[in-house]
Amino acid sequence: MARSQARSQLTPAAAADTAAAKAEARRLRVLVPLILGLLALALGLKAWDERQSAEASRLIQIESEARHLAARIEAAGNVAITAISIAEGGSVPRAETASLTPGIDAIVSLRDASQSPETSRLGAGVAAANRMMEEGALIGLSAQGDIVFLAALDERNPVMALTQASQLIGQPGEGGRITLLGEGNTFGTGDASLAAAAAAGAPRPRIISAGGTRAAIACAPAGSGALSVCVAVRQPLLTRADLLSFAIFALLVAAPTFTLFGLSRRLSLRQREIAIQETRNEESDRILGLVMRGARAGYWEWYQGPGALFLSEGAADLVGIASSGRVALEELLDRVPVESRSYVKEGFSKARSIGWVHLTFIAQTSPLRWIEMRGSVSTDPVTGTTVFGGIMMDATERKQAEDRVKTAERRLRNAIEGFNGPFALWDTRKRLLYWNRAFALDFGLQDTLRPGMSHDTVVIARAGAVANERRSEEDMRTTMLALRNGRWLKMVERATPDGGLITVGIDVTENVRNEDELKKQKEKLRRAALDLERSEGRSNELTRKYSEEKEKAERAALAKSAFLANMSHELRTPLNAVIGFSEIMTNELAGPLGDPSYKEYAKDILMSGQHLLDMINDILDMAKIEAGKMTISPQPIDPIDPVDAAMRMIRRKAEEKAIHLVLEAEDNLPDIDADHRAIRQMMLNLLSNAVKFTDNAGTITVRVEQRGTDIYFGVTDTGIGIPPEDLPRLAQPFEQVAKTKDRNHEGTGLGLALTKSFAEMHGGRMLLSSIYGEGTTVAFVLPIGGPSALRFDIQRDVA
């Protein structure tokens, strides 16, 4: 009763305080668990942040390790490719090259290695190389744990180099960390399943949870990506260090941490990103520096505004500047010889307008060093200024190699020029590449020869200096040439290993004279023997007379052939003299003739002589054909060459009548198996007829095209045309449209007959069509493969 009264005597203020205390207690009962929960959450988040930072550092570390190993493999690949190039160059055998190259166990072609068993080291290497070629990769891993470096210098027989993977990735880390992943192959003591999952599913480093543990893993591609280097480190989900961190942070973290947690979280994330990026940048710089040092190169940048350069450590070392970093352009020029400074300045000045720079100069180092600078323009993302950046390389060995090649070429040229006989070099299509001074002088071609001339064109051009020509009976590639100055040359042609041709001439004048003297002595001996036979008595008189008569009969049977040979010499030789002297008089080479009529007379003599020579040549050729003495020598030739030669020979006559010559030829015509001289003669016959029967200011069109397996050669003129009744007989010898003496066009009527005969000797045919009063088309069609019968050889008499 007394206690109840005491409670009832509490003042309203005290009651209010009590209620407030109770409310505060209730709030505390709510806030304390909330604060404890938030504190626990804060502790957990902080612990998680620390763990993430540790894992990020671990990822950066293992990613750096993976990249370093990949860079080491790529550097070994560069060494292997260089070794393969040296071996394939032929100077050092593959096995010796492999033994001399550190880290390379074997260099072998896929064709040779494919003979090894599939389970052997070489067989596994071939299988890996085949997969690499399908994917376009240069570095791969074999099933035997070898790293395969592939070089396709020859697409038909690629070459590979093998090296043990353990030589490049080193000893595995604690508990097995490193794994090499190839196309279906692995090597190393690391966790291959985790490495394969990371390489296939994530291009960046990450943490993988598997089997109650967490694994930090990072992979780096080597080469084009067919080979990956993976580093993996396992650890428990919750370590003792994690529990200790929770206990420590529970003691240290207070209520203000809760309000700052969000900001610190964001800041820590940003700091971690910056740290990762900075670490990656440092690692990239380290790898780049490693590569630059291995290649004896450096990096440079040129800031055009202040005229300064940034030189990396390697670049500064190349030019002999003590410290790397930002240097003045003038400091670089001081390292260049005085005579080359204007060249370097001009190169940098031009770079402003062309956007790139490429300089090669000598650096005044000890010893002197050739430097090559390459670079292009870019914009600095921070300052917005234009910057030239690029690499600086040591080009001393390359320049020395170029100098050695130039010296060897100069010595070879001096040796060829020192040879007193003619020498010429031709490419695979028999186009002139090089000739010595003796070749031009002996044949009088000083102003004619030029690179790219065809072999047949040069042979035709040298004909003016050759009086006689005959092939050796022992070697068809050897020819004896009698020059008009009395000298004899033995010309030998041999093929080069690359498919070209070499022509070499030797002066054999004394040998020929000795042979002629020997023939004279043999003739004297023969005559002495005949005299001895006559002295044997009358008993042999009838036999000798019989032999003489028989010999006369045989000579009579061969009279036609002898007549042709005599006519070739007796008629052409004086006629050539008449033509030559009349041409000298026409051109007034020996001085003015005086009266202009004399010059006209000389022109008439020249035209008449040339006309007579053409008639004699046609008559002799026709007689040879009828006697079966005319032969051809087919060989692969460009069909345009003889056509072009004939057009050049007739162009002067066409220009005298203001006739327009047009050549219409298809592109990429195949070579034809035919006789160059015969085709040139056929085209010259057709063009001569076209010029003769075409009025002034007319047009002659020459058409060369492929028709199936044949080549079509046609000449179309806008001349007088041929009546239809005269077409059938025009291809007969000595046949012409007009037979009256007052016809306007002279000739023997043998041109078409010769053309028809030459075409048939090639296995082809002649075509003739005409519209009287409008023009004529004469053509011949020759098979590309040449005549199917025996092969012939044209041998025209030499005047």
TrEMBL record:
It catalyses: ATP + protein L-histidine = ADP + protein N-phospho-L-histidine. Residues 566-786 form the Histidine kinase domain. Keywords: ATP-binding, Cell membrane, Coiled coil, Kinase, Membrane, Nucleotide-binding, Phosphoprotein, Transferase, Transmembrane, Transmembrane helix, Two-component regulatory system. Pfam families: HATPase_c, HisKA, PAS_7. InterPro entries: HATPase_C_sf, HATPase_dom, His_kinase_dom, HisK_dim/P_dom, HisK_dim/P_sf, PAS-like_dom_sf, Sig_transdc_His_kin-like_C. Its EC number is 2.7.13.3. GO terms for cellular component: plasma membrane. One of its GO terms (molecular function) is ATP binding. The chain crosses the membrane at residues 243-263. It is found in: Cell membrane. It comes from the Bacteria. The keyword Phosphoprotein applies. Residues 508-552 form a coiled coil. The keyword Lipid metabolism does not apply. This is histidine kinase.
